[in-house]
Amino acid sequence: MYASRVRASLRGWGGVGAMAVLCALALAFALLLPCTQPRHDGGVRAAGPGVAHGSQARAGDCKDSEAQKQTLSPSGADGRTIDAIKSRTGAKRKLVVGVDQNSYHWGYRNPNTETAQLEGFDIDLVHRIAEDILGDPDAVQFKAIPTSQRIPAIKDGRVDMVVRTMTISCERLDDVAFSAPYFKTGQQVLAPKSSSVKGYDGTLAHKRICTASGSTAYGKLKADRDAGDLPASTDISTTVPNQLDCLVRLQLGEVDAVVTDGALAASQAAQDPTVALKGDAFTTEYYGVAMKKDADDLVRRVNRILVDYRADGWQASYDRWLSATLGKDSGPSKPPAPQYLRKS
Question: Which residues 6+ apart lie within 8 Å of 13 measured at CB?
Answer without folding.
Answer: 19, 111, 112
